[in-house]
Write a structure and sequence with these properties.
Length: 473
């Protein structure tokens, strides 16, 4: 019922605000923008989210079926069972849902978006097999969903790319703050849902699991950060050594010969459409090479692991003499059906959010918050970045656009620009995830999912502000 009331409120409030703007402000285009946004969003929900997801769902559900038949999922479940059994006490320790959830969390952690969503939907379906009330969310499903909305990610590659494109002097300077922020949000999610479900949060298994997670996340992030710095220095030395002042002169070299001055791996990525070189093109190519090298470790690690998972599953199934291809087909058959099933839920939620955005409600909320903080006479440097935080629970693409807009308006290296990036990397889109994951299994009674998810995101926003002041204030 909660989602029902929220959906109704989004649409009615959007219409009322649009009507008020038309009558009192003379805004004759507000309803046109709302209708245009509605058409665009419903098209995106089907053509750019659900249907492309069908292909990845088909592949990854097939791979997961191979892993399940080979015993890999149960093996993983036994490893993390002691920790997960405390967070998900209603799920048996050796149930495949444990392994599926672990696979999803691992994919999210490494930023493997194409794999994370199918694996997450598979995990939610596994949890649904334990659900005795098929239209009502269980405690385990709510815990899983809230942990998913915390957006625990180790490599914020896309955010660093947008910082580079918007002229950041060091696009990676938000790397550690984003990791700290997303970990804090995840921790808040565990605490909030754990208190609601009366879990024993101070049990040795949970404390040990969190301790290991902290060591792993920050240890790996420290390694990636140092590796990025090392590759950056290599790129700068390479430019100074191989791309000499002589070769930088546009008249002395052709475009194809200039591209060949870089390492082979970067030659494949460098695109120069112009027929002749200019100093600005050379400078841009050098900067692209530096950023390419900076992301080498995370890029290689992510893609190797993405292919390692199916390779290990297939190899294990082959050793156990399982018919690998038939297992893949059995699992893959479910993929398209799941993608089609979520279309009504996605269209409903994204359409309502689009109306909310285009009506201008968010602008009024931001103005109100800004006025309140100005009355308290506290530091308000974080206010310009708040649109990203407010939009994040509603729309990932919307919050990304606001993050870019903040960097373009205030500068990528401004406090607001950096904070907007930390906001973007510290949580995920609550309403989208609820519509996607619960819609895929037909959950209609979501209980306290939205309350817990939004409260987790709120605590994550507050933590992100303090983190940004610590690192950049």
């Amino acid at each position: 019922m909660t989602l029902n009331y929220i959906w109704i409120a989004f649409i009615i409030l959007s219409f009322l605000v649009g009507l008020l703007k038309l009558i009192f402000l003379g805004d004759t285009t507000v309803f046109k923008h709302m209708v245009d946004g509605l058409f665009d969003t419903t098209k995106v929900a089907v053509m750019e989210i659900a249907l492309p997801l069908a292909g990845m769902m088909t592949f990854w559900l097939g791979i997961m079926k191979i892993g399940e038949n080979a015993g890999a999922i149960r093996f993983l479940s036994r490893i993390v069972g002691p920790f997960f059994s405390k967070l998900f006490p209603s799920v048996p320790k050796d149930h495949p849902a444990i392994g599926n959830m672990m696979m999803n969390f691992s994919a999210n952690l490494l930023g493997l978006d194409n794999a994370a969503t199918p694996l997450g939907l598979k995990a939610m379906d596994s949890l649904q097999s334990l659900n005795t009330k098929k239209n009502t969310a269980t405690d385990a499903q709510i815990m899983f969903l809230v942990l998913h909305t915390s957006g625990l990610t180790l490599i914020p590659a896309s955010i660093m790319l947008y910082r580079y494109l918007n002229g950041a002097q060091d696009p990676t300077d938000i790397f550690i703050p984003c990791i700290v922020g997303t970990f804090c949000t995840t921790l808040f999610g565990i605490i909030i849902v754990g208190i609601r479900q009366k879990l024993k949060l101070f049990s040795p298994s949970i404390l040990l699991g969190l301790g290991i997670a902290i060591l792993f996340i920050f240890g790996l992030s420290f390694y990636i950060k140092n590796s990025a710095n090392s590759h950056t220095e290599f790129a700068k030395d390479y430019i100074n050594t191989h791309i000499t002042p002589k070769t930088k002169k546009p008249d002395n070299i052709k475009v194809d010969d200039f591209i060949k001055l870089y390492p082979i791996s970067f030659q494949k990525e460098l695109k120069i459409d112009e027929s002749s070189l200019t100093p600005s093109i050379i400078s841009k190519a050098n900067q692209e090479f530096i950023n390419f090298e900076r992301g080498t470790t995370s890029r290689v690690m992510s893609n190797v692991l993405l292919l390692l998972i199916p390779t290990v599953f297939i190899s294990g199934a082959f050793i156990k003499k399982i018919n690998v291809f038939d297992s893949f087909i059995d699992g893959a058959k479910e993929g398209f059906g799941v993608a089609v099933k979520i279309i009504p839920y996605l269209v409903a939620m994204l359409a309502a959010i689009s109306l909310l955005r285009n009506s201008g409600i968010m602008d009024y909320i931001l103005t109100g918050i800004s006025s309140i903080f100005k009355l308290t006479q506290i530091n308000t440097d974080f206010i310009p970045a708040l649109p990203t935080a407010l939009m994040k629970p509603l729309s990932g693409s919307g919050s990304r656009a606001l993050m870019i807009e903040t960097m373009q308006t205030y500068g990528a290296d401004s406090f607001a620009g950096r904070l907007s990036c930390v906001f973007q990397g510290s949580a995920d889109t609550t309403f989208y995830i609820i519509a996607l994951y619960f819609g895929s299994i037909g959950i209609k009674r979501i209980r306290y999912s939205i309350t817990a998810g939004l409260l987790t995101e709120l605590m994550g926003v507050i933590a992100a502000i303090f983190i940004a002041y610590y690192f950049f204030g």
